[in-house]
Amino acid sequence: MSQGQYVAAVYGAVFVVVLAYVAIIAAKLARLQRQTTELLELARQPPARSAEPVTREVPGEV
Amino acid sequence: MGLAIFLALLVAPEDLDQGVSQRIFYIHVPVALTAYFCFGLGAWKALVLLWRGEERYDLESYVAIHQGTIFGVLTLVTGSIWAKASWGHWWLWSEDQLVLFLVLFLFYCAYFMLRFSLEEGPRRARSSAVYALFGVVLIPISFLAIRLAEGLIHPTVFTREGPQMSGSMFATFCVSWAAVTLLAYVLYRVELAGKRLDTDLRELREALQ
Description:
- The complex is a heterodimer of chains A (62) and B (209).
- By secondary structure, chain A is mainly alpha-helical.
- Chain A has one domain (1-45).
- Helix content of chain A is 68%, strand content 0%.
- In chain A, 5% of the residues are buried.
- The mean pLDDT of chain A is 81.
- Chain B has one domain.
- In chain B, strands 1-2 form a two-stranded antiparallel sheet.
- In chain B, helix 2 runs antiparallel to helix 3 (56-86) and helix 3 (56-86) packs antiparallel against helix 4.
């Protein structure tokens, strides 16, 4: 390998490592965004109704 | 970063002794200094955690050491390639400064093994902080070894008489150092924000379910 190729290898290695790091961070942020959307949907859902049957009082009945 | 690469590869004059391969200096040294700085920052945050007991410093210490490890990998890779280009060897075990940097790097790699072997909580935060603080002792040893080592294959550019290079070379080095430090700072902030968001979302999910 020539001296110039070694220099290119060094700068290329730094570029690849930083790129890989940024890609990992980007993937993580995408996952966090997905989780945020899921939580938002969960928060917007109406509260679950009670399982007990609703009894209605009829006026006049004892 | 673009300006730094432009200056390092195209503007800075060629070294009479090493030739083109000296241009590796403009990336290798700033990356190594940034690795030292990140490890030092991680230890400082660990000290503040032990001092004040605030949990947020645990995450900050962890992220700083994580950054230091990444820049440590880059230091070892760029140093090895430069060593091959200049000395004809990828690695020399007889060189104390190389071995000491490797010891420092491996010490902080073991930090992650310790951290992930413990359950999340104050105990893990304290244990990790103590470990990170012990590692900081290795930083000046590793840094000074380059100056004190008897086998002077590894060059010493910054001496008591100042930088042993021309003005334009020194300016290029300063721009490269600033660029790498800025890159490390941005990556640190982004990773820290991601980790904090992750923790907040976990707590929110638990509160909603």
